[in-house]
Amino acid sequence: MSEAPKKSKISASRRLALKTKLLKMASMMLEKEKGEKRLERESTLSERVPPLQLSGLSMQDLQALCKELHHKIDVVDEERYDIEAKVAKNNKEIENLSQKIFELKGKMKRPALKRVKISADAMLGALLGSRVKESVDFKANLKTVKKEEEKKEEVTDWRKNVEAMSGMEGRKKLFDAGQ
Predict the structure, then answer these.
(1) HEC per residue, 96-116
(2) Where is 139: in which H helix or E strand?
(3) d(CA 65, CA 69)
(4) Dist CA 134 CA 139 (whole Å)
(5) C-alpha dihedral sign at 116, 120, 122, 126
(6) What is the mean pLDDT of each run of 10 residues along the chain (179 residues)?
(7) What's the predicted TM-score (pTM) here?
């Protein structure tokens, strides 16, 4: 009992008109926001950086002004470096905390897989395409492994063994066999 897809109450032409209006409105808002940011930036810069008066200054005054500007640049660079270090530290801390949250939530849930009944020939056909028509003998490509037979000691009469090992000659045989 499959359900038919729900028909939308809005016609396609009406939907398209609404999308175009939304896009126009969003572009207008974006342009307005860009203009506001530009004005804010200009006003902030005019407050922080007064215009330079270079005309009528002697060489010593210009050198002093350059030294002062270099000192201000150094101070701003130090502040920027400190802020970048803080941001990097905070980002790393956020990453660690989000990892801990992920671990606390538990393992990722795996979706239930559906069991598919398919023959080996059909699976090969799906994987390799229609170019493989005949069935493939899987056992033909397997390596053969030879099992080593365990070495069995021959069962002999123990009395003969004792007689052969008695005396110095037997001990010499044992010593030679051990090496």
Answers:
(1) HHHHHHHHHHCCCCCCCCCCC
(2) none
(3) 6
(4) 15
(5) positive
(6) 67 92 96 97 87 82 90 94 97 94 76 78 74 59 70 63 62 64
(7) 0.36
